[in-house]
Amino acid sequence: MKKILTIVGLACLSLFIVSCEKETEGISHETNYAVFDLQGGNTIFHTLGEPFVDPGYSAKENGQNVDVTVSISSLYNGYSGNTVDANTPDLYTIAYSATNSDGYEASTSREVYVFNTGDMVNSIEGLYTSTVVRNGSSGAQYTDMEYIFITKTGDNTYSISCGIGGYYQFGRAYGVDYSAPATVVANSIPSNDFSFEQFSVGTFGGAVDITSLTVDPSSKTIIFTSVWDSGYEFVVTLKQVQI
Length: 243
Hints:
By secondary structure, this protein is mainly β. It is about 10% helix and about 45% strand.
């Protein structure tokens, strides 16, 4: 009797396994996501006013070329389109996406910094790394932060993308909503004679005043102090990026 029950049990188990195999047959499927090849690197520094040409890109699915869709957005000016606006200083992100034969999308991106580089005598335009000391204290995360834009907006008027040197935007990684755009009027750059407009710190708000600004053409640096009514003083050292 035990032998008969054992044989019957094994037969049922075999039928169950065969049934499972039939039900799961064809469910498992391997898909190949598109693999991108970007020429020219993931970060590009581009001179303002010069036509921008993408260095090149392609995508392949399992060795075969697939179509790539391109979209472009800017960090500060709200631009979106399919070409980089080489006449407006900003950080542009080029997003590349491709869909494989199974309908799965893959993507990659690169950043393009468009800016003009001033000579620090007639113009302080440029792209700068930033080191910030707040209330006498700093740290590695607030050193050589990338990047602050200084853009010429008039004959002698300049916009600084963050008047506290990107302390919260980059140092704390809070993002662009915590930048603090500031305006500087250069009465005489060689004489370090500047006028300043009061500004605020993004989402935090409050009132900030730049109390001093010094340009050193020989070292390509700008040092300024900003005082926030929240009780913080920021001493910012900007180092101009040379391209």
